[in-house]
Amino acid sequence: MRVEVEREDDGRWIGEVPALPGVLVYAATEQEARSKAEALAFRVIADRLEHGEPIPPEARQVFAA
Prior knowledge:
This protein is α+β, with helices and mostly antiparallel strands.
């Protein structure tokens, strides 16, 4: 699962998981943005699994051994 991190003009960091629409977070540091995005992605995947909703193929790589 790919996490994209970018710094805004105001200094905030944005973390996003393109494979999971809506997984977007703001943070004070690059590492915090990456960690928060990953945590939110796991929550979204768990919620989708719980409700029988499809998981995008790229997001399934999280579970690959």
